[in-house]
Amino acid sequence: MILPAIARSMLVAALFAAAPTVTPALARAEAKLQLSQPGYHRFTIGDIRVTALSDGTVPLDTKVLTNVSRRTVEALLAKAFVASPVDASVNAYLIELGDRLVLVDTGAGELYGPGLKKLPEVLQAIGHPPDQITDILVTHIHTDHTGGLMDGERRVFPAATLHVEQRELAFWLTPSNIERVPAPLKRLFREAELKVRPYVEAGQVQTFDGATQLFPGIRAVPSPGHTAGHTFYSLESKGQTLMFWGDILHVAEVQLPQPAVTIEFDSDPAAAAAQRARVFADAARRGYLVAPAHIAFPGVGHLVRDAAGYRWIPLPYVNDAVPAGTPESK
After folding, report:
1. Contact (Cβ atoms closer than 8 angstroms) between residue 171 and residue 185
2. Regarding predicted confidence, which is higher, 79 or 318?
3. How far apart are CA 44 and CA 91, in angstroms?
4. Phi, psi angles (nearest 5°) of residue 142
5. What is the Cα–Cα distance from 115 to 109, expressed in whole angstroms?
6. How far is Cα 140 from Cα 147, in angstroms, rounded to an integer?
7. Which neighbouring-strand residues pair with 162?
8. Does 199 score more than 80 pLDDT?
9. How far is CA 168 from CA 94, 124, 254, in A?
10. Are strands 231-237 and 240-246 parallel, antiparallel or unpaired?
11. Strand, helix or coil at 302?
12. Summary mean pLDDT of the chain
């Protein structure tokens, strides 16, 4: 879960402040690439084509990070040539699986400011408009991952079945649970009703319980902590693996070198930190690709150990218009 700047949301008014006075660190961060067209990046896992999709970016004030000092955060951001608020990517992913078009998360829709709600345009640009999507894998129901399900009263994905871990669905669609979360997160229950409930009522939601093989090559991997039913999805083909990580981290510049750093949006911060320590170590040891939702677009790469923490190695860019192995691609 990530949240927008104060002018874009009433949810975290005290946390997402206006841009700070220009400092040397901020000056270093001013040269930013701007998307002038829909953002997508195609690649393959074995025989399966995957497309990383950008829903856009949202400013994230790093004051929401916990279990870390402000001095440490500022030092790590400066080392990475960025400053708070960081521009957090909101990524989704499309898996082309035979006659199925499987989407991992749906972006934020209109909920978190004008820098988002790009996903429908991107899907249209790659020739797979939203009404062609057959399945949606929901990592969790925070609305920067499910906000794109509805556009007003219209279901954006009218032919899609949502696959959601049963504990996750039950938690967010049980109104009495609103008393169990911190005040900044209470609005998420109302948003879940607006964004997810219409699919339940239309018979378009299928739940699963923990570790489950959903499709050939795609399985759900339980990862509770950030939310009660937070779920990774593993894609495997021809000995290659890509793990869609959802919200395992929010500020890579801080949480990769210091995985114990948590965030105010974690339902169970201790469990979330433990999950991060476990899966970071596993990804680095086994060398599979990972796709977190909020790392800089296209958000696909490897983790390697670096001192007490980890370092991000992004997936190399390949022009998908040139088939791999041709002279032009070498």
Report:
1. no
2. 79
3. 17
4. -55, 140
5. 10
6. 11
7. 136, 205
8. yes
9. 22, 30, 27
10. antiparallel
11. strand
12. 87
Separation of alpha carbons 8 and 35, rounded Å: 20
More confident residue, 254 or 32: 254
For residue 40, what is the DSSP state? E
Which position has the token pair 């339980």?
A: 222
CA angle (288, 121, 135) in 5-degree steps: 55
The answer to whether 230 and 274 are in contact (CB under 8 A) is no
CB of 185 closer than 8 Å to CB of 2 = no
What does the block give as tokens for 132? 């062609």
Q: Residue 190 CB: number of other CB atoms within 10 A?
A: 12
Which residue ranges form the domains of the chain, and what is each CATH number? Answer: 6-27+38-329 (3.60.15.10)
In the chain, where does DSSP find H-type helix?
A: 24-29, 70-79, 119-125, 143-146, 166-172, 187-195, 197-201, 252-255, 269-286
Provide the pLDDT confidence category of residue 37 given band limits of 50, 70 and 90: low
Q: Given a cut of 80, is residue 142 above it in pLDDT?
A: yes
Angstrom distance (rounded) from CA 278 to CA 299: 20
Q: Quick check: helix, strand or coil at residue 74?
A: helix
C-alpha 141, offset from chain centre: 11
Residue with tokens 């949480």: 255
Instruction: Give the mean model confidence (pLDDT) for residues 161-171.
Output: 97
